[in-house]
Amino acid sequence: MISRTRCERLINFLYGEVDYDEMPRIMWLSALLCAIIGGFWLLDSLKDTVLATTVGLEYQPRAKVLSVCVTLIVVSIYNGLIDRVSKPALFYAIGFTYFILFVILGGCLAHRSFGMENTSPDPHRLLGWFTYFAIESYGSLAVALFWAFTNASIDLESAKSSYGLIVAFAQLGAIFGSTLATKASAFHISFLFVLGGSSCLLVCAMVRGYEIFFMIPAQILPAHPSENTTQQSANKIRSNVHLFDGISLVLRHGYVTSLLAISTLYEVILTVLDFEMKIIGRARYSTDERGAEQFAELMGHFGQTVNTISFIFSLAGFSYVVRRLGLSITLLVFPFLLIVGTLVTYASPGLWTLFITTALLKALTYSLNEPALEMLYVPTSEPIKFKAKAWIDVVGARSAKAAGSAINDFVQRSPYLRTNLPQYGNVPALLVSIILLAVSAHVGSRFESLVEDGHIVGEQKPNSHLYRSGGDHRGSYELITRLASSRSEDDDDAKSIFGAIARENNR
Protein backbone atom coordinates (compact mmCIF):
# COMPACT_ATOMS: atom_id res chain seq x y z
CA MET A 1 0.00 0.00 0.00
CA ILE A 2 2.86 2.34 0.83
CA SER A 3 4.56 1.44 -2.43
CA ARG A 4 1.40 2.17 -4.40
CA THR A 5 0.96 5.52 -2.67
CA ARG A 6 4.51 6.53 -3.50
CA CYS A 7 4.01 5.44 -7.10
CA GLU A 8 0.85 7.53 -7.38
CA ARG A 9 2.64 10.53 -5.90
CA LEU A 10 5.44 10.17 -8.44
CA ILE A 11 2.96 9.93 -11.33
CA ASN A 12 1.06 12.97 -10.07
CA PHE A 13 4.33 14.88 -9.69
CA LEU A 14 5.39 14.14 -13.27
CA TYR A 15 2.05 14.26 -15.07
CA GLY A 16 -0.50 15.88 -12.78
CA GLU A 17 -3.80 14.23 -11.89
CA VAL A 18 -4.30 10.96 -13.78
CA ASP A 19 -7.72 9.54 -14.63
CA TYR A 20 -7.10 5.84 -14.12
CA ASP A 21 -10.42 4.92 -15.78
CA GLU A 22 -8.95 6.20 -19.03
CA MET A 23 -5.79 4.11 -18.79
CA PRO A 24 -7.02 1.22 -21.04
CA ARG A 25 -7.71 3.68 -23.84
CA ILE A 26 -4.43 5.51 -23.29
CA MET A 27 -2.37 2.34 -23.26
CA TRP A 28 -4.09 1.07 -26.42
CA LEU A 29 -3.21 4.29 -28.21
CA SER A 30 0.31 4.05 -26.88
CA ALA A 31 0.58 0.49 -28.22
CA LEU A 32 -0.77 1.64 -31.59
CA LEU A 33 1.82 4.40 -31.87
CA CYS A 34 4.43 1.91 -30.64
CA ALA A 35 3.62 -0.38 -33.59
CA ILE A 36 3.81 2.49 -36.08
CA ILE A 37 7.07 3.87 -34.73
CA GLY A 38 8.63 0.43 -34.33
CA GLY A 39 8.05 -0.50 -37.96
CA PHE A 40 9.14 2.89 -39.21
CA TRP A 41 12.39 2.97 -37.23
CA LEU A 42 13.29 -0.51 -38.42
CA LEU A 43 12.87 0.59 -42.03
CA ASP A 44 14.36 4.04 -41.49
CA SER A 45 17.51 2.52 -39.98
CA LEU A 46 17.96 0.49 -43.19
CA LYS A 47 17.03 3.26 -45.62
CA ASP A 48 20.46 4.82 -46.04
CA THR A 49 22.17 1.42 -46.14
CA VAL A 50 20.04 0.38 -49.11
CA LEU A 51 20.61 3.71 -50.84
CA ALA A 52 24.37 3.54 -50.25
CA THR A 53 24.59 0.01 -51.67
CA THR A 54 22.33 0.45 -54.69
CA VAL A 55 22.69 4.11 -55.67
CA GLY A 56 25.52 5.56 -53.58
CA LEU A 57 25.29 7.54 -50.35
CA GLU A 58 26.55 10.66 -52.10
CA TYR A 59 23.14 10.78 -53.81
CA GLN A 60 21.27 11.00 -50.51
CA PRO A 61 20.93 14.82 -50.70
CA ARG A 62 19.26 14.51 -54.11
CA ALA A 63 17.02 11.74 -52.81
CA LYS A 64 15.80 14.04 -50.06
CA VAL A 65 15.12 16.81 -52.56
CA LEU A 66 13.17 14.47 -54.83
CA SER A 67 11.27 13.06 -51.85
CA VAL A 68 9.67 16.50 -51.48
CA CYS A 69 7.95 16.02 -54.84
CA VAL A 70 6.78 12.55 -53.88
CA THR A 71 5.55 13.77 -50.50
CA LEU A 72 3.76 16.70 -52.16
CA ILE A 73 1.73 14.28 -54.27
CA VAL A 74 1.01 11.98 -51.34
CA VAL A 75 -0.07 14.73 -48.95
CA SER A 76 -2.29 16.29 -51.63
CA ILE A 77 -4.13 12.98 -51.95
CA TYR A 78 -4.24 12.70 -48.17
CA ASN A 79 -5.69 16.21 -47.84
CA GLY A 80 -8.34 15.39 -50.39
CA LEU A 81 -9.38 12.22 -48.58
CA ILE A 82 -9.49 13.62 -45.04
CA ASP A 83 -13.07 14.88 -45.36
CA ARG A 84 -14.31 12.04 -47.54
CA VAL A 85 -13.07 8.88 -45.84
CA SER A 86 -13.40 7.80 -42.23
CA LYS A 87 -10.21 7.81 -40.19
CA PRO A 88 -10.16 4.02 -39.71
CA ALA A 89 -10.75 3.44 -43.43
CA LEU A 90 -7.92 5.82 -44.26
CA PHE A 91 -5.70 3.90 -41.85
CA TYR A 92 -6.58 0.59 -43.51
CA ALA A 93 -5.93 1.97 -47.00
CA ILE A 94 -2.52 3.33 -46.07
CA GLY A 95 -1.62 0.27 -44.00
CA PHE A 96 -2.43 -2.30 -46.68
CA THR A 97 -0.84 -0.21 -49.43
CA TYR A 98 2.47 0.10 -47.63
CA PHE A 99 2.39 -3.51 -46.47
CA ILE A 100 2.24 -4.68 -50.08
CA LEU A 101 4.84 -2.11 -51.14
CA PHE A 102 7.39 -3.06 -48.48
CA VAL A 103 6.95 -6.80 -49.07
CA ILE A 104 7.59 -6.29 -52.80
CA LEU A 105 10.63 -4.12 -52.06
CA GLY A 106 11.92 -6.76 -49.63
CA GLY A 107 11.65 -9.40 -52.34
CA CYS A 108 13.47 -7.18 -54.82
CA LEU A 109 16.27 -6.53 -52.33
CA ALA A 110 16.84 -10.28 -52.10
CA HIS A 111 17.40 -10.55 -55.86
CA ARG A 112 20.99 -11.35 -56.84
CA SER A 113 21.21 -8.98 -59.80
CA PHE A 114 19.52 -5.79 -58.63
CA GLY A 115 19.23 -6.45 -54.89
CA MET A 116 21.66 -6.06 -52.01
CA GLU A 117 24.01 -8.76 -53.31
CA ASN A 118 24.95 -6.42 -56.14
CA THR A 119 27.25 -4.01 -54.30
CA SER A 120 28.11 -1.82 -57.28
CA PRO A 121 26.27 1.47 -56.70
CA ASP A 122 24.71 3.07 -59.75
CA PRO A 123 22.34 6.08 -59.80
CA HIS A 124 20.29 4.26 -62.46
CA ARG A 125 19.31 1.50 -60.03
CA LEU A 126 15.73 2.60 -59.41
CA LEU A 127 15.19 0.16 -56.56
CA GLY A 128 17.25 2.30 -54.20
CA TRP A 129 15.29 5.43 -55.09
CA PHE A 130 11.89 3.73 -54.74
CA THR A 131 12.88 2.26 -51.39
CA TYR A 132 13.98 5.65 -50.07
CA PHE A 133 10.80 7.41 -51.21
CA ALA A 134 8.55 4.67 -49.81
CA ILE A 135 10.07 4.86 -46.33
CA GLU A 136 10.09 8.67 -46.29
CA SER A 137 6.43 8.93 -47.30
CA TYR A 138 5.33 6.19 -44.89
CA GLY A 139 7.02 7.90 -41.97
CA SER A 140 5.28 11.16 -42.80
CA LEU A 141 1.81 9.75 -43.30
CA ALA A 142 1.59 7.07 -40.62
CA VAL A 143 2.50 9.28 -37.67
CA ALA A 144 0.44 12.14 -39.08
CA LEU A 145 -2.60 9.93 -39.44
CA PHE A 146 -2.18 8.53 -35.95
CA TRP A 147 -2.52 12.00 -34.46
CA ALA A 148 -5.43 12.87 -36.74
CA PHE A 149 -7.02 9.62 -35.56
CA THR A 150 -6.23 10.33 -31.93
CA ASN A 151 -6.79 14.05 -31.77
CA ALA A 152 -10.47 13.82 -31.10
CA SER A 153 -11.01 11.52 -28.17
CA ILE A 154 -9.33 12.67 -24.97
CA ASP A 155 -10.80 15.24 -22.65
CA LEU A 156 -8.77 18.23 -21.64
CA GLU A 157 -7.79 17.12 -18.15
CA SER A 158 -6.98 13.55 -19.18
CA ALA A 159 -4.79 14.80 -22.01
CA LYS A 160 -2.54 16.69 -19.62
CA SER A 161 -1.66 13.52 -17.78
CA SER A 162 -1.83 10.95 -20.57
CA TYR A 163 -0.09 12.46 -23.56
CA GLY A 164 3.38 12.02 -22.16
CA LEU A 165 2.60 8.38 -21.38
CA ILE A 166 1.39 7.74 -24.94
CA VAL A 167 4.57 9.16 -26.39
CA ALA A 168 6.97 7.65 -23.86
CA PHE A 169 5.80 4.07 -24.17
CA ALA A 170 5.54 4.42 -27.94
CA GLN A 171 9.29 5.07 -27.89
CA LEU A 172 9.76 1.47 -26.84
CA GLY A 173 8.69 0.53 -30.36
CA ALA A 174 11.36 2.80 -31.80
CA ILE A 175 13.98 1.15 -29.60
CA PHE A 176 12.80 -2.31 -30.67
CA GLY A 177 12.83 -1.40 -34.37
CA SER A 178 16.30 0.09 -34.13
CA THR A 179 17.53 -2.99 -32.28
CA LEU A 180 16.24 -5.26 -35.03
CA ALA A 181 18.19 -3.19 -37.56
CA THR A 182 21.40 -4.03 -35.70
CA LYS A 183 20.72 -7.69 -36.57
CA ALA A 184 20.95 -7.07 -40.31
CA SER A 185 23.84 -9.53 -40.61
CA ALA A 186 21.81 -12.33 -39.02
CA PHE A 187 18.40 -11.73 -40.63
CA HIS A 188 19.36 -10.07 -43.94
CA ILE A 189 18.04 -6.68 -44.95
CA SER A 190 15.40 -8.07 -47.33
CA PHE A 191 13.75 -10.06 -44.52
CA LEU A 192 13.77 -7.03 -42.23
CA PHE A 193 11.93 -5.08 -44.93
CA VAL A 194 9.21 -7.72 -45.02
CA LEU A 195 9.06 -7.61 -41.22
CA GLY A 196 8.74 -3.83 -41.29
CA GLY A 197 5.97 -4.11 -43.84
CA SER A 198 4.17 -6.62 -41.64
CA SER A 199 4.00 -4.01 -38.90
CA CYS A 200 1.56 -2.14 -41.16
CA LEU A 201 -0.87 -5.05 -40.82
CA LEU A 202 -0.43 -4.99 -37.05
CA VAL A 203 -1.31 -1.31 -37.08
CA CYS A 204 -4.50 -2.01 -39.06
CA ALA A 205 -5.48 -4.75 -36.60
CA MET A 206 -4.95 -2.44 -33.64
CA VAL A 207 -7.01 0.32 -35.26
CA ARG A 208 -9.81 -2.20 -35.74
CA GLY A 209 -9.55 -3.20 -32.10
CA TYR A 210 -9.75 0.43 -31.06
CA GLU A 211 -12.89 0.82 -33.15
CA ILE A 212 -14.50 -2.13 -31.40
CA PHE A 213 -13.58 -1.32 -27.82
CA PHE A 214 -13.38 2.45 -27.58
CA MET A 215 -15.09 4.24 -30.45
CA ILE A 216 -18.70 5.27 -30.75
CA PRO A 217 -20.37 5.11 -34.21
CA ALA A 218 -20.52 8.88 -34.66
CA GLN A 219 -16.78 9.10 -34.36
CA ILE A 220 -16.16 6.82 -37.32
CA LEU A 221 -17.61 9.35 -39.74
CA PRO A 222 -15.20 11.13 -42.09
CA ALA A 223 -16.26 14.63 -41.10
CA HIS A 224 -14.60 16.56 -38.29
CA PRO A 225 -17.74 17.56 -36.38
CA SER A 226 -17.90 20.61 -34.18
CA GLU A 227 -20.61 21.94 -31.92
CA ASN A 228 -23.84 22.94 -33.67
CA THR A 229 -22.51 21.82 -37.07
CA THR A 230 -25.15 20.21 -39.26
CA GLN A 231 -24.51 17.49 -41.79
CA GLN A 232 -25.58 19.86 -44.54
CA SER A 233 -22.94 22.42 -43.66
CA ALA A 234 -20.36 19.65 -43.33
CA ASN A 235 -21.17 18.45 -46.82
CA LYS A 236 -20.87 21.99 -48.12
CA ILE A 237 -17.43 22.35 -46.56
CA ARG A 238 -16.29 19.03 -47.99
CA SER A 239 -17.52 19.93 -51.45
CA ASN A 240 -15.36 23.05 -51.40
CA VAL A 241 -12.23 21.34 -50.15
CA HIS A 242 -9.25 21.95 -52.36
CA LEU A 243 -6.08 19.92 -52.28
CA PHE A 244 -4.06 23.07 -51.62
CA ASP A 245 -6.22 24.59 -48.90
CA GLY A 246 -3.48 23.90 -46.38
CA ILE A 247 -0.82 26.03 -48.02
CA SER A 248 -3.30 28.87 -48.55
CA LEU A 249 -4.01 28.90 -44.80
CA VAL A 250 -0.28 29.01 -44.07
CA LEU A 251 0.20 32.03 -46.30
CA ARG A 252 -2.97 33.81 -45.17
CA HIS A 253 -2.22 33.97 -41.44
CA GLY A 254 1.01 35.45 -40.09
CA TYR A 255 0.94 33.28 -36.98
CA VAL A 256 0.66 30.12 -39.07
CA THR A 257 3.50 31.31 -41.29
CA SER A 258 5.60 31.63 -38.14
CA LEU A 259 4.58 28.09 -37.20
CA LEU A 260 5.88 26.94 -40.57
CA ALA A 261 9.26 28.51 -39.81
CA ILE A 262 9.65 27.23 -36.26
CA SER A 263 8.43 23.75 -37.22
CA THR A 264 10.81 23.25 -40.14
CA LEU A 265 14.02 25.27 -39.80
CA TYR A 266 15.60 22.85 -37.34
CA GLU A 267 15.30 20.10 -39.97
CA VAL A 268 17.89 21.95 -42.06
CA ILE A 269 20.49 21.69 -39.28
CA LEU A 270 19.70 18.09 -38.38
CA THR A 271 19.89 17.06 -42.04
CA VAL A 272 23.37 18.56 -42.36
CA LEU A 273 24.66 16.93 -39.17
CA ASP A 274 23.03 13.59 -39.98
CA PHE A 275 24.59 13.44 -43.44
CA GLU A 276 28.02 14.34 -42.09
CA MET A 277 27.79 11.48 -39.60
CA LYS A 278 26.65 8.98 -42.23
CA ILE A 279 29.32 9.93 -44.76
CA ILE A 280 32.08 9.49 -42.18
CA GLY A 281 30.46 6.34 -40.80
CA ARG A 282 30.04 4.66 -44.20
CA ALA A 283 33.68 5.35 -45.07
CA ARG A 284 34.75 3.19 -42.11
CA TYR A 285 33.43 0.00 -43.71
CA SER A 286 34.10 -1.91 -46.92
CA THR A 287 31.90 -1.49 -49.99
CA ASP A 288 30.83 -5.16 -50.14
CA GLU A 289 27.66 -6.70 -48.70
CA ARG A 290 29.32 -7.26 -45.33
CA GLY A 291 30.25 -3.58 -45.14
CA ALA A 292 26.63 -2.65 -45.91
CA GLU A 293 25.43 -4.86 -43.05
CA GLN A 294 27.96 -3.31 -40.67
CA PHE A 295 26.80 0.17 -41.65
CA ALA A 296 23.20 -0.93 -41.07
CA GLU A 297 24.21 -2.10 -37.59
CA LEU A 298 25.80 1.29 -36.89
CA MET A 299 22.58 3.02 -37.90
CA GLY A 300 20.65 0.59 -35.72
CA HIS A 301 22.78 1.52 -32.73
CA PHE A 302 22.21 5.17 -33.59
CA GLY A 303 18.46 4.59 -33.51
CA GLN A 304 18.76 2.78 -30.19
CA THR A 305 20.63 5.70 -28.68
CA VAL A 306 18.21 8.32 -30.01
CA ASN A 307 15.09 6.52 -28.88
CA THR A 308 16.40 5.44 -25.48
CA ILE A 309 17.23 9.05 -24.61
CA SER A 310 13.90 10.20 -26.04
CA PHE A 311 12.02 7.57 -24.03
CA ILE A 312 13.63 8.57 -20.75
CA PHE A 313 13.09 12.29 -21.28
CA SER A 314 9.52 12.05 -22.56
CA LEU A 315 8.61 9.70 -19.70
CA ALA A 316 10.07 11.75 -16.88
CA GLY A 317 11.21 15.13 -18.12
CA PHE A 318 9.07 16.92 -20.69
CA SER A 319 5.98 17.71 -18.66
CA TYR A 320 8.08 18.75 -15.68
CA VAL A 321 10.30 21.04 -17.78
CA VAL A 322 7.41 22.81 -19.48
CA ARG A 323 5.54 23.33 -16.22
CA ARG A 324 8.63 24.82 -14.59
CA LEU A 325 10.03 26.90 -17.45
CA GLY A 326 6.85 27.78 -19.31
CA LEU A 327 6.31 27.32 -23.03
CA SER A 328 8.11 30.47 -24.18
CA ILE A 329 11.37 29.53 -22.47
CA THR A 330 11.03 25.87 -23.45
CA LEU A 331 10.82 26.88 -27.11
CA LEU A 332 14.23 28.56 -26.81
CA VAL A 333 16.03 25.56 -25.32
CA PHE A 334 16.27 23.45 -28.47
CA PRO A 335 17.50 26.23 -30.83
CA PHE A 336 20.16 27.09 -28.25
CA LEU A 337 21.28 23.45 -28.14
CA LEU A 338 21.41 23.41 -31.95
CA ILE A 339 23.84 26.33 -31.87
CA VAL A 340 25.99 24.51 -29.32
CA GLY A 341 25.86 21.29 -31.36
CA THR A 342 26.97 22.91 -34.61
CA LEU A 343 29.86 24.63 -32.84
CA VAL A 344 30.99 21.40 -31.16
CA THR A 345 30.94 19.38 -34.39
CA TYR A 346 32.68 22.21 -36.24
CA ALA A 347 35.51 22.15 -33.70
CA SER A 348 35.73 18.34 -33.50
CA PRO A 349 34.30 16.74 -36.67
CA GLY A 350 34.92 13.08 -35.76
CA LEU A 351 32.48 10.18 -36.14
CA TRP A 352 31.72 9.77 -32.45
CA THR A 353 31.38 13.50 -31.86
CA LEU A 354 28.84 13.65 -34.68
CA PHE A 355 27.20 10.41 -33.51
CA ILE A 356 26.65 11.62 -29.95
CA THR A 357 25.72 15.20 -30.86
CA THR A 358 23.26 14.20 -33.58
CA ALA A 359 21.72 11.50 -31.38
CA LEU A 360 21.18 13.92 -28.50
CA LEU A 361 19.66 16.58 -30.76
CA LYS A 362 17.34 14.12 -32.49
CA ALA A 363 16.25 12.66 -29.17
CA LEU A 364 15.39 16.11 -27.85
CA THR A 365 13.58 16.85 -31.11
CA TYR A 366 11.17 14.00 -30.41
CA SER A 367 10.88 14.42 -26.65
CA LEU A 368 11.14 18.20 -26.11
CA ASN A 369 10.91 20.35 -29.22
CA GLU A 370 8.09 18.75 -31.19
CA PRO A 371 5.80 18.32 -28.16
CA ALA A 372 6.27 22.01 -27.39
CA LEU A 373 5.57 22.92 -31.01
CA GLU A 374 2.27 21.08 -30.95
CA MET A 375 1.06 23.27 -28.11
CA LEU A 376 1.33 26.23 -30.47
CA TYR A 377 -1.63 24.91 -32.48
CA VAL A 378 -4.08 25.27 -29.60
CA PRO A 379 -5.21 28.81 -30.52
CA THR A 380 -5.96 27.90 -34.15
CA SER A 381 -9.08 26.87 -36.04
CA GLU A 382 -9.91 23.32 -37.07
CA PRO A 383 -8.88 23.80 -40.74
CA ILE A 384 -5.48 25.07 -39.59
CA LYS A 385 -5.07 22.12 -37.21
CA PHE A 386 -5.80 19.65 -39.99
CA LYS A 387 -4.96 21.06 -43.38
CA ALA A 388 -2.33 23.71 -42.66
CA LYS A 389 -0.56 21.44 -40.18
CA ALA A 390 -0.52 18.64 -42.73
CA TRP A 391 1.41 20.85 -45.12
CA ILE A 392 3.71 22.16 -42.42
CA ASP A 393 4.56 18.80 -40.87
CA VAL A 394 4.84 16.81 -44.07
CA VAL A 395 5.61 19.06 -47.04
CA GLY A 396 7.26 21.80 -45.00
CA ALA A 397 9.47 19.38 -43.09
CA ARG A 398 10.49 17.56 -46.26
CA SER A 399 11.28 20.87 -47.95
CA ALA A 400 13.48 21.88 -45.02
CA LYS A 401 15.30 18.56 -45.25
CA ALA A 402 15.71 19.20 -48.95
CA ALA A 403 17.27 22.58 -48.14
CA GLY A 404 19.71 20.89 -45.79
CA SER A 405 20.42 18.31 -48.46
CA ALA A 406 21.08 21.09 -50.97
CA ILE A 407 23.82 22.35 -48.64
CA ASN A 408 25.25 18.84 -48.41
CA ASP A 409 25.04 18.36 -52.17
CA PHE A 410 26.79 21.66 -52.84
CA VAL A 411 29.65 20.73 -50.52
CA GLN A 412 29.84 17.20 -51.95
CA ARG A 413 30.12 18.46 -55.52
CA SER A 414 33.17 20.59 -54.72
CA PRO A 415 36.44 18.59 -54.64
CA TYR A 416 37.89 21.10 -52.19
CA LEU A 417 34.91 21.45 -49.87
CA ARG A 418 34.11 17.72 -49.86
CA THR A 419 37.18 16.91 -47.76
CA ASN A 420 36.01 19.37 -45.09
CA LEU A 421 32.27 18.66 -45.07
CA PRO A 422 31.63 19.22 -41.32
CA GLN A 423 33.37 22.60 -41.33
CA TYR A 424 31.74 24.04 -44.44
CA GLY A 425 28.36 22.39 -43.90
CA ASN A 426 28.11 23.70 -40.35
CA VAL A 427 28.51 27.36 -41.30
CA PRO A 428 25.06 27.73 -42.93
CA ALA A 429 23.65 25.38 -40.28
CA LEU A 430 24.84 27.77 -37.57
CA LEU A 431 23.21 30.73 -39.31
CA VAL A 432 19.89 28.86 -39.57
CA SER A 433 20.13 27.96 -35.86
CA ILE A 434 20.46 31.63 -34.93
CA ILE A 435 17.47 32.54 -37.10
CA LEU A 436 15.46 29.74 -35.49
CA LEU A 437 16.26 31.09 -32.03
CA ALA A 438 14.86 34.50 -33.00
CA VAL A 439 11.75 32.96 -34.58
CA SER A 440 11.16 30.84 -31.46
CA ALA A 441 11.23 33.92 -29.24
CA HIS A 442 8.70 35.67 -31.49
CA VAL A 443 6.32 32.71 -31.73
CA GLY A 444 6.38 32.09 -27.98
CA SER A 445 5.43 35.69 -27.30
CA ARG A 446 2.68 35.62 -29.93
CA PHE A 447 1.25 32.38 -28.52
CA GLU A 448 0.97 33.85 -25.03
CA SER A 449 -0.86 36.88 -26.43
CA LEU A 450 -3.36 34.70 -28.28
CA VAL A 451 -4.07 32.57 -25.22
CA GLU A 452 -4.46 35.62 -23.00
CA ASP A 453 -6.91 37.24 -25.44
CA GLY A 454 -8.81 34.01 -26.10
CA HIS A 455 -8.34 34.57 -29.83
CA ILE A 456 -8.45 31.70 -32.30
CA VAL A 457 -6.40 32.18 -35.46
CA GLY A 458 -8.63 31.47 -38.44
CA GLU A 459 -11.89 32.28 -36.64
CA GLN A 460 -13.69 35.56 -36.21
CA LYS A 461 -14.45 35.53 -32.50
CA PRO A 462 -12.59 34.36 -29.41
CA ASN A 463 -13.11 30.82 -28.17
CA SER A 464 -11.91 30.87 -24.60
CA HIS A 465 -13.37 27.39 -24.07
CA LEU A 466 -10.32 26.00 -25.84
CA TYR A 467 -8.23 26.95 -22.85
CA ARG A 468 -10.29 25.28 -20.15
CA SER A 469 -11.62 21.81 -19.64
CA GLY A 470 -15.11 21.08 -20.81
CA GLY A 471 -17.59 18.37 -19.95
CA ASP A 472 -17.01 14.70 -19.69
CA HIS A 473 -16.19 13.88 -23.28
CA ARG A 474 -15.42 10.29 -24.08
CA GLY A 475 -14.74 8.54 -27.34
CA SER A 476 -12.13 7.80 -29.88
CA TYR A 477 -11.85 10.97 -31.85
CA GLU A 478 -12.45 13.10 -28.85
CA LEU A 479 -9.30 11.56 -27.47
CA ILE A 480 -7.00 14.02 -29.08
CA THR A 481 -9.11 16.98 -29.76
CA ARG A 482 -8.78 17.69 -26.14
CA LEU A 483 -5.32 16.30 -26.30
CA ALA A 484 -4.34 19.22 -28.49
CA SER A 485 -6.31 21.61 -26.35
CA SER A 486 -4.79 20.23 -23.22
CA ARG A 487 -1.57 21.88 -24.14
CA SER A 488 -2.63 25.44 -23.81
CA GLU A 489 -3.62 25.91 -20.20
CA ASP A 490 -0.76 27.41 -18.21
CA ASP A 491 1.81 26.06 -20.65
CA ASP A 492 1.77 22.93 -18.57
CA ASP A 493 -0.28 20.72 -20.76
CA ALA A 494 2.52 19.78 -23.05
CA LYS A 495 2.85 16.13 -23.70
CA SER A 496 3.47 15.45 -27.32
CA ILE A 497 6.10 14.24 -29.72
CA PHE A 498 6.72 13.59 -33.38
CA GLY A 499 4.83 16.48 -34.72
CA ALA A 500 1.16 15.49 -34.63
CA ILE A 501 -0.01 16.50 -38.06
CA ALA A 502 -3.67 16.96 -37.40
CA ARG A 503 -4.96 18.60 -34.29
CA GLU A 504 -8.74 18.70 -34.16
CA ASN A 505 -10.71 20.65 -31.58
CA ASN A 506 -14.38 19.92 -31.69
CA ARG A 507 -15.48 22.31 -29.01
Describe this structure in words.
- The protein is mainly α and 507 residues long.
- The protein has one domain (21-222, 240-491): MFS general substrate transporter like domains (Growth Hormone, Chain: A).
- The protein is built from 19 helices and no strands.
- The protein has helices spanning 2-15, 23-54, 60-82, 87-109, 126-150, 156-181, 184-187, 189-214, 231-239, 245-252, 254-282, 289-316, 318-325, 327-347, 351-375, 382-413, 415-418, 421-453, 478-485.
- α5 crosses α19 (478-485) and α10 (245-252) crosses α11.
- The chain is globular.
- The two termini are 40 Å apart.
- Mean pLDDT is 77; it is low at 223-241 and 464-507.
- InterPro entries: ADP_ATP_car_bac_type (IPR004667).
- Keywords: ATP-binding, Membrane, Nucleotide-binding, Transmembrane, Transmembrane helix, Transport.
Question: Helix/strand/pairing class, anyone?
Answer: mainly alpha
Q: How many structurally independent domains?
A: 1
Fraction in beta strands = under 5%
First-to-last CA distance: 40 Å
CATH superfamily: MFS general substrate transporter like domains
CATH topology: Growth Hormone, Chain: A
Please compute the radius of gyration using only Cα atoms.
22 Å
Tell me how many strands there are.
Answer: 0
- Tell me, briefly, the overall form: globular
CATH architectural type = Up-down Bundle
Mean pLDDT: 77
Helicity range = over 70%
Number of helices: 19
Major β-sheet profile = none
CATH top-level class: Mainly Alpha
Order of helices and strands: HHHHHHHHHHHHHHHHHHH
Low confidence ranges: 223-241, 464-507
Question: What oligomeric assembly is this protein in?
Answer: single chain
